[in-house]
Amino acid sequence: MDLLKTIRKNTFTTIISTIIIGIVIFLLAQLSAKFTISVFADNLTFWNKNVVFKSFMLIYSLTTILILNRGKLTGFGLSKPAKFNVFKLTGLTALITIFIMIFGTIVFIKILSNMFPRPGETGFPQHNSIIEMILVVWLWSSFVEEVFVRSLLQTILSNLKNIKLFKLSLSVIISGLLFGSMHLSLLATGRNLWFVMHIVLFTSSIGILAAWYREKTDSIVPAFLVHLLANIFGSLPLLIMHFVK
To answer: b/e per residue, 202-212, with b = 16+ CB within 10 A?
Structure first.
């Protein structure tokens, strides 16, 4: 039985199955991380807990790919990309990152949070070091999330790439929105509603760009670069403040 073919029977089953698979893997990774942390290391920091969570996410994502792809990892974007312009990718990522950061800060942090105050923390916990930020956020999180969203989920959605909306394929749009919606889970960590919405807007925008490159090059490598660069550009204010002190 070709499970992937069954999932892609029509547009509706493709979208619903992708969402269900994404939610199940996300929740399984969360539950596995919570159990592991409670048993072995209950005093981990926010970022160390994130490493454990993302490790389980990677395991479940790769396992699902193997199940859907009859024991193989090929054909899910885990390959050398078609030729693409690295400088254009870097420039687009920088422009989108800077624009969304400014726009989101004005709309969500400055306007909406003042008009409709909500409890919760605005911002993430500080890293123990720059090295931790590079390893945990820039590299590990970027890699794992791209395997989960762009390799697994977007590949399932790839039969929708001929359906266009605003010149973008439905698979690209849904992949980007799924990536952004993942970050709604930050509400459970005590983050402020408007801060979380700012993050969701940012990650959805970057997710759509990463998904476009994934579709264009048939590889998650350019998508990973978009994700990595967005995290780097987004961290620049923190780096500047760190070195100015």
So the answer is: bbbbbbbbbbb
